[in-house]
């Protein structure tokens, strides 16, 4: 049997003929996409600008409150510091006598917040510490609460006089009868029948 070999020129033309429908459809899609972008009105741009994707709140590091810093005292051991502040975010091998606690939070629509506290050790005890002014736990939680306030919260308690204004659905005799009624049987029965 002889193998049929086609000339190279015929292979090139066959490949071009098959690729042309794909190129044509890609060109049509690109033209339609460009004309769609050009026909956007100011109103549709404003609508798209109002819709923003959700960005995840990113919290990195150790949150340190002012109450925790007040608990630190010069001369505390490294273990005592770990119990109060936790493990440091940065502990440099070349500067073994320095621990850095860094806290960063990034939220959508709010400037990133960064706080830093640095502890310096002499031997195993705390020599000194310095850093940014740190908020209390209550202040920090208040800054995280982004819910809108709707005004004063109404009182949810009613006095006896206010409750007596509304008629009850049952009379006292009907309420006593309901209290003495047997409970319905449970399904499946919990008692064994032997």
UniProtKB/TrEMBL annotation:
Residue ranges, annotated region (Disordered): 158-194
UniProt entry keywords in alphabetical sequence: Cell outer membrane, Membrane, Signal
Primary location: membrane
Keyword set includes Membrane: yes
Family matches, as Pfam families: BamE
The keyword Transmembrane is assigned to this record: no
Domain Outer membrane protein assembly factor BamE: 61-130
Residues forming coiled coils: none
Localization: Cell outer membrane
InterPro entries per the UniProt record, alphabetical: BamE (IPR026592), BamE-like (IPR037873), BamE_dom (IPR007450)
Protein family membership: Belongs to the BamE family.
Purpose: Part of the outer membrane protein assembly complex, which is involved in assembly and insertion of beta-barrel proteins into the outer membrane.
Annotated HAMAP family: OM_assembly_BamE (MF_00925)
Subunit and partners: Part of the Bam complex.
Official protein name in the record: Outer membrane protein assembly factor BamE
Taxonomy of the source species: Bacteria, Pseudomonadati, Pseudomonadota, Betaproteobacteria, Burkholderiales
């Amino acid at each position: 049997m002889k193998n049929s070999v086609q000339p190279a020129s015929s292979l090139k033309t066959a490949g071009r003929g098959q690729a042309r429908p794909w190129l044509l459809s890609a060109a049509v899609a690109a033209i339609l996409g460009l004309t769609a972008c050009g026909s956007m009105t100011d109103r549709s741009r404003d609508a798209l600008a109002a819709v923003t994707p959700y960005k995840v709140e990113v919290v990195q590091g150790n949150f340190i409150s002012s109450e925790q810093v007040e608990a630190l005292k010069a001369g505390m051991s490294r273990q005592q510091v770990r119990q109060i502040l936790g493990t440091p975010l940065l502990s440099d091998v070349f500067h073994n006598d320095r621990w850095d606690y860094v806290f960063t939070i990034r939220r959508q629509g709010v400037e990133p917040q960064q706080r830093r506290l640095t502890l310096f050790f002499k031997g195993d005890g705390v020599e000194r510490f310095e850093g940014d002014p740190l908020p209390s736990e209550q202040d920090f939680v208040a800054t995280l609460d982004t819910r809108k306030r709707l005004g004063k919260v109404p009182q949810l308690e009613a006095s006896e006089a206010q409750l007596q204004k509304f008629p009850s659905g049952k009379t006292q005799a009907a309420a006593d009868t309901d209290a003495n009624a047997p409970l319905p049987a449970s399904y499946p029965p919990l008692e064994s029948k032997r």
